[in-house]
Amino acid sequence: MAKLVLVPTPIGNLEDITIRGLNILKACDMLFAEDTRTTGNLLSHFEINKKAIPFHLNNEHKVLHSAIKLISSVNLAVLVSDAGTPGISDPGFLLVRECIKNGIAVETLPGPTAFVPALVNSGLPCDKFFFEGFLPHKKGRETRLKFIAQSEATVVLYESPHRLEKLLLEIEKHCGAERQVSVSRELTKLFEETFRGTVAEVHKHFASKTVKGEIVVVVAGKD
Ligand code: SAM
Questions:
Q1: What is the arithmetic mean of pLDDT over 58-86?
Q2: Nearest-10 Cα torsion for 27, 33, 35, 40
Q3: What digits encode the pLDDT tens for the residues 64-77?
Q4: How far is the CA of 114 from the centre of ligand 1 (A)?
Q5: Which domain holds residue 55?
Q6: Separation of 168 CA from ligand 1 center, angstroms?
Q7: Per-residue pLDDT tens over the stretch 162-202
Q8: Are strands 215-219 and 193-198 parallel, antiparallel or unpaired?
Q9: Are 74 and 171 in the same domain?
Q10: CB 206 within 8 A of CB 195
Q11: Mutate which of 216, 217, 218, 219 for ligand 1 pocket (most atoms within 8 A of beta carbon)
């Protein structure tokens, strides 16, 4: 019976791939990848000789039905994204939904993802949290910021380094300068950094330098 397995891949440190993830990558009959070159580098590091089929945000609607046909024709297919867990701010959801509709078994391995270490490391309550991911750039952004300001649960956002300052200013405007936030940068990598404080303090810290690398912003819930 056909099965699709979603395999999380490292968000920086290659040692974070799981033994089960590697074994499934070695054993699979078919591999879908967000970026075949990025995945090719990962596979060659672990001496796995597999060719990946592209499955990314720009082609997922177009290739969905052919992907389902291909998956149905083999025992074990795998989906990976460039980094972290497929489906988390990455392609995955459409393929999972379509597999379920078509009676194909789906399994997701636990493994690397950026929001969990950022949330836990923030020191903010993580018994209840809301994963916001990337905010829309224009339409709907204001609505999401109002939602964040009113949320009683901790909120986790993904952001690019060049937009961090704008986001922190917006959080300050909507939530007030005293709201606690935590910014985690370059998780699992050599220059990993987590800076915590009020949004005004965190803004001041990052405004004084050029921000590089990948970023997760964690915002405390409303008191
Ligand atoms: N699928 C991934 C996951 O499971 O976390 C997320 C992919 S999304 C396209 C990329 C975003 O995740 C980055 O812009 C950043 O916000 C966050 N991210 C990924 N790797 C990270 C890292 N090493 N440190 C901090 N944030 C990271």
A1: 98
A2: 10
A3: 999 999 999 999 99
A4: 5
A5: 3-108
A6: 18
A7: 999 999 999 999 999 999 999 999 999 999 999 999 999 99
A8: unpaired
A9: no
A10: yes
A11: 216
